[in-house]
Design a protein that fits this description.
Elements: H1 31-53, E1 56-60, E2 63-65, E3 71-74, E4 77-80, E5 86-89, E6 93-96, E7 101-105, E8 131-147, E9 158-172, E10 206-213, E11 219-222
Length: 246
């Protein structure tokens, strides 16, 4: 077995959280091995997003009052979650704040089945002047069920063969501390001369807007209140120009 050569003064270290399969001939590969290979890549991507790019709203995801009472409409957009997950809102979403939460799979998938007696049960309506915060977090949903017990008698057991990316929209009662700057100047990160610290996220939410309840279900939306943006260079570019001889 070969090993990487190190100098006499080097130190070796490993990270148990980032372990990937090492395949070899005649190896018995199990579903755990295949899933571990995917988890390794996804966890590294999350760490890259979280520590290098940060987290927050990248673009879009603007919240506006809906046509019906107690509803808001969230425009398509792209968000990076606190744990480094990518949240793609690919179509407008209408959300009733009385429901408190709404799971939304991407690309028209089906959310997890709910108890039919408890589905779409709305909480008491917010009181006039009450403030709520519309937030989103990453979620994944099982999809594409297939038979898993063969073709024998009673072989009707199914397993989901895919995981579909999605998200969950909820309302929070308070603005999370992670959305408030240290200098008290609103949302977003503050600049400092101190060395950066690799902090662990405390919650999965990215706030999109603050809403205030009015009479008869009217909602006042404040987009920039408790909304955290992440810097994106996607819109920066320049035109190529031929070099001119001096």
């Amino acid at each position: 077995m070969t090993d990487m050569t190190h100098s006499a003064t080097s130190l070796k270290g490993t990270s148990r959280a980032f372990e990937r399969p090492r395949y070899f001939p005649r190896q018995l590969i199990t579903p755990d091995d295949m899933n571990l290979a995917q988890d390794y890549v996804r966890n590294r991507m999350r760490r890259h997003n979280r520590l290098l790019h940060g987290w927050g709203v990248v673009c879009g995801a603007i919240v506006q009052p809906g046509k019906d009472p107690w509803t808001v409409v969230i425009a398509p957009g792209f968000v990076l979650g606190p744990y480094g997950d990518e949240i793609s809102i690919d179509q407008p979403v209408t959300f009733d704040v009385r429901l408190r939460c709404k799971p939304v799979p991407e690309s028209g998938g089906c959310p997890p089945s709910a108890d039919p007696w408890c589905n779409e049960v709305a909480d008491p309506a917010p009181t006039e002047g009450q403030t709520l915060f519309v937030a989103v977090r990453y979620a994944e949903f099982p999809a594409r069920p297939v038979r898993s017990s063969g073709c024998g008698c009673g072989g009707d057991e199914c397993e989901y063969s895919r995981w579909r990316d999605g998200y969950e929209i909820c309302v929070l009662d308070e603005c999370p501390p992670s959305h408030i700057r240290d200098d008290g100047q609103g949302e977003g990160g503050s600049r400092s001369n101190k060395p950066p610290v690799c902090e662990c996220p405390t919650d999965p939410w990215v706030v999109l807007a603050r809403v205030t309840a009015g009479r008869d279900g009217s909602l006042t939306v404040e987009t920039c209140a408790c909304r955290r943006h992440v810097v994106s260079h996607a819109g920066e570019w320049w035109a190529c120009q031929e070099a001119q001889d001096g």
